Every structure is written in C-alpha cells, then in structure tokens.
Amino acid sequence: MRNLTQKSTALRLARFGTLLALMGALTACQTMQAMMETPEKEKKAEVIPPPAVEPIPVRSARASMIAPIVETRETITATGYAVVSIQNHKTPAQKRLLAIRASKLDAYRALTEQVYGQHLDATTTVADMTVMSDTFRTRVEGVIYGAVLVSITPAGDDTYETTLSLDARVVDDLRALYLGQLASNIR
Questions:
Q1: Is residue 61 over pLDDT 70?
Q2: 130 and 100 share a domain?
Q3: Residue 21 sits in which domain range?
C-alpha cells in the first residue's frame, strides 16, 4: 500500500513537472518570437528588456491537450454494464439489484476515465527475440460529482446497462480542482 502511494505521488509529480515544462517552453517561444520581429539595426541600438513573465493560465495549457476529447461536446456520457447471474446472492430480486448497482459503478468508472484518463502500467519481457510475457495494468483515480443518471435498462435477459452524463463545465471544474490538488501536494 505504501509503495502504491509513493508511485501515485511520483506520477503526480511527473505530471506537474510536465505541465511546468510546457509552460516554460511556451514562455521561451514568446521571447524568441519577440526578438526575431525586431530588425537587426534596432537590436544593436536598443536594449530589449525581458518580457514580463506572466503565468500561463492552466486552462490554456490544458486546452490544447484536452480540447479534442471533451470541450467540443456539451456533455460526456458513459455506460456501465453488469451481469445479473454472477451476482453473489440467493434470491433473483437481490441479484438484479446488485447488478443495477454494479452497472452504475461501472458507468462512474467510465466517466472517471474520460475526465482524468487512465494510469497504464505495462511490462514486456523479451528473451532470445521472443516475447516471454506481456502484462498490462490500468488504474483509474478521481472524483466525480454532478453526474446525471440518464437510464438504467435491462440489456438482454441477464444484463443491466446504466448510462450517466456529465456537463462539460463540471468536467472543467473537476480538472481544475485536480490540478490544484496536484500543485498543493508538491509544495
């Protein structure tokens, strides 16, 4: 458990470091562009003061990476599924209720994947130019609030399907809170 917490903290630090590097690169590009626009004669005659460094809003740095995924839609939706017959209970009614609950949790997991992404850990072992093992592990972590239950319906004879939706403005709020939490954890 402690090792998992350390890995999670390291992942958060890496994400925050990447964000800082991106912000620094964008600031450097603006400085270089300002220098390139000044004619050569003016460069020798006048000293160019360094531009005031203003922090790039988190939203603008995120927008270029995330915009194609969510911000083009007003809402995001996710669907979860669960099989009735594999639920651990004796009565059919209780199995059905457990399947409904499991399908709802699966839909929340799918929403969380869309908002925060997945942490993917992959390992491949090769010996004598042959793949000996290939493993993947994924993990999803996040907080979802404001999800709207769209529907809970039977899908076939033995499955339930739950659909949830989330407004894009709520997604922006969730991501901003997450980035703020990452920044406060680094300090």
A1: no
A2: yes
A3: 1-55
